[in-house]
Amino acid sequence: MRSDLSRLLTDQHKRxxxxxxxxxxxxxxxxxxxxxxxxxxxTRLTRELITLDLIEExxxxxxxxxxxxxxxxxxxxxxxxxxxxxxxxxxEIVLVDFAGTLIAREAQPFASPxxxxxxxxxxxxxxxxxxERSLMRTRFLGLGLAVPGPVTKWSPxxxxxxxWLRGWQDVDLPDYFEDYLGVPVFVExxxxxxxxAEFYDSGLIRSCDSAIVFFLGHGVGAGVISRRNVFxxxxxxxxxxxxxxxxxxxxxxxxxxxxxxxxxxxAIETLNEIDQVLExxxxxxxxxxxxxxDQLWLAVDAGIGWIDPGAIVLSGGLPPSIxxxxxxxxxxxxxxxxxxSQPSVRFHVSRLGxxxxxxxxxxxxxxxxxxxxxxxxx
Length: 378
Prior knowledge:
By secondary structure, this protein is an alpha/beta fold.
């Protein structure tokens, strides 16, 4: 199911929008030159996009000669999208506008393995959040769902989810949720969603062509961005690196830290309670960060060797201080991943935390509209 907006836009419209997403605000003449579009058609195309509230004119910029130029930029008013995900113990849901700006976010307790219960919760909160902000349903572009687990060999629309979401297995998830909710639904792995969110949030979309985002949540996974688009691989499972870290051994995952803390006596049940024991179990956390950081370094180094990304981002459902400690450990020996004769790889630690998955899921319907003209849709 595709949004009405996607059907209204021509490839030329999408090229203009994509150009503005990558480079930021720019005058018509500059965009026309970059895209090889004549002045007349450019004026018409941008006027149509302004009418749809997809781009807007910014303040005039004084030029050394001639008339001041009026930069154009992607606008938020043309539509909005939602994203949602589940973590062990709670769910998160966000709204973003067409420019990719976060409008709202909410979290609430959730522990059911039944996808129907999840759909009911999302339906209720979507209606309430949109109503509270007077958002028009006709401008809703779709719902993205970030789901833990790889695509199965039986169908690209089914996922081998984690055990506590066993009710989601053997279900055609896009069809299931579209039938219940009556809106376009996009389902993607949580690490892939986080990769898209981090690529937008960190500004990497404007400064590099590719990135690898390591997301620590139910397990450990990676979102791979190539040519400024999500790279899914042959079967949709690119970035499924959990197999590097067997389940019967210590792993660099958020769930592994939770287990480690509980074995050390911490009276916590879910990931969002780790904040409560940062001081009381500081030594346990520090030791875990050293071990997990060393494990992650191997995956990071391999990713750099295979993909040659412009950036590496460390993200996940952990408190910022723990993500930073992991990042410090991974980059402790920068000379080990930087070669004297090769360009260096930028390294970022996420500021989005667990929200990266839901935000990235919300960006999928928006990203699909403008990026699909340059590559395969998400």
